Structure formats: C-alpha cells, structure tokens
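Input record, target 12 of the design panel.
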C-alpha cells in the first residue's frame, strides 16, 4: 500500500527525467503528507530535489515547530535562511543543529558560511576549523578559510587552505590564482608561476592571473618577458579594471620585497600606460 513516503520517493525518482511533471505530481502528494516533524522534513527534502527552496523552507519550518530538536530540519532551514540573507534566523537554527551534532562537518560548515556572510571573521574561522577537524572535504570551506586567513594576515595558512581547495576541486582556477599570489608574497616565485599558469590553462579569461604571472616573472629578473606578459594581459583586459586591481596590490607586494627598487618603477610605468590607454 502506498504511503506519503513512498509517494514522495516516486516524485523524487520522477524528477530525474521529468522535473515539470514531478512538480505537478507533488501538488497532489503534498496535502496528504502527515503533519509530523519527520514527514515534514521528508517533504522539505523532496521540495529541494524539485528545486523549490521556498516550499522546502516552509516544510522545514513546520518540522521545527513540531519538533524543535529535529536537527536535520534546523540545518536545512538555517542554510536556506543564510542563502536568502536572513542571517540572525539562520544562525539560530544552525547553532542548534551544530551544537546537537558537533561532529557533523556539514552543519559546522553551514554555520561558518553564515558567519562569513555576516562578516564575523573570527567566528567564521572557528566554525570552519571545526568543520575541517570533523572531516570536511568541501572545497568552499577551504577556499573561504583561505580568504579569511589572508584577511587576518595568516599568509601561509591561507596558502595551505587554497591548496587544499585545489586538491578537492582541481577545476577551480580561482584558488590557483590566489595561491599563486600568496606564493609571490611569500617569496616562492617558481611555485607562483606554476599555479598562475595552471589557472590560465583552466580559464584563459582569468585576467588577474595574467597580471600576477607577469609580476612573478618580473620579480625573477626577466623584465623583458614580464613586459611582454603585461602587454598580453592588457590586450585581454577590456577597460583595464583588472589592471587597476593589480596596481592596488603593489603596496602589499613591495612591502614583501623592500630591496627590489624596480617594483616602484614598474608600478609607475603600468599606471602611466593605464592612464594613457583611457584617453
């Protein structure tokens, strides 16, 4: 005999081949789902499969109302609230879920993303580090930690975090660029070239990596090759907005290379060519 759970399973299975039809079927199934926390949580998960997050959130909210200790519903509702910018409400639900299951890496990570969006950096770092200790293999967790460590001037930790993100998601060129820039700051210029080249192989339109590769080449003393790389980067940088951002990085780079007087000249040269190009 069919039950609301088997009906939900059927809708989920149908969604793989016919999402529109599955949504239509759900309109028939949803009213018969029992008003219990487990059933409402199951309904919410089914709505998630159907890519109907608002309906899913309503079901998870009902599950939490029926059973405040339903940690899965709390997590799903809190994650949704975080995504739509309801950060205090999301934090409340995610704190409950994370406290109930401290070894659940996904719950801890979701709390970290909530703090990240709220610009609460120390709390975000703490939550993400708990997620990592619990075994997280989410590349977004490590990429977020990379940014947070960088903002906190923990450059080697940031480099390692971006490296782990790259291991978990090798197609993510952004983290190669970020790690390449950190290699520059930390003085490992060959490693910087390797990462920045890898970024461009994954995404040839990643203009910041072009500029960073030119800078790494300049710092190794090959100024002619660096100038050619800069010319190529400018040709791909329509409006030269990426060059502006690159120039903004120079003070930080120069602080790590105080003996290299050529950097100041390079910055002036790039700034002048940018200004001339805008006329």
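The sequence produced for target 12 reads:
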């Amino acid at each position: 005999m069919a039950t609301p759970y088997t009906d939900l399973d059927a809708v989920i299975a149908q969604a793989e081949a016919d999402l529109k039809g599955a949504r239509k079927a759900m309109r028939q199934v949803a009213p018969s789902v029992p008003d219990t926390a487990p059933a409402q949580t199951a309904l919410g998960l089914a709505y998630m499969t159907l890519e109907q997050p608002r309906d899913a959130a309503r079901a998870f909210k009902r599950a939490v109302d029926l059973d405040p200790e339903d940690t899965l519903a709390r997590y799903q509702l809190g994650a949704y609230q975080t995504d739509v910018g309801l950060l205090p409400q999301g934090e409340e639900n995610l704190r409950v879920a994370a406290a109930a299951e401290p070894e659940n890496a996904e719950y801890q990570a979701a709390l970290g993303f909530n703090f990240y969006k709220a610009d609460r950096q120390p709390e975000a770092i703490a939550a993400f580090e708990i997620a990592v200790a619990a075994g997280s293999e989410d590349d977004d967790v490590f990429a977020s930690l990379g940014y947070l460590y960088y903002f906190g001037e923990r450059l080697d930790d940031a480099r390692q975090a971006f490296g782990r993100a790259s291991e978990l998601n090798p197609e993510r060129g952004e983290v190669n660029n970020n790690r390449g820039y950190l290699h520059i700051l930390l003085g490992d210029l060959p490693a910087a070239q390797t990462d920045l080249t890898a970024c461009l192989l994954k995404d040839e339109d990643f203009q910041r990596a072009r500029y960073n590769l030119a800078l790494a080449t300049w710092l190794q003393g090959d100024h002619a090759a660096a100038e050619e790389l800069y010319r190529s980067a400018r040709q791909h940088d329509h409006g030269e907005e990426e060059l502006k951002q690159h120039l903004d990085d120079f003070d930080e780079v120069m602080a790590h290379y105080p003996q290299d007087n050529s950097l100041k000249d390079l910055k002036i040269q790039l700034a002048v060519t940018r200004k001339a190009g805008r006329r």
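The longest helix spans residues 262-277.
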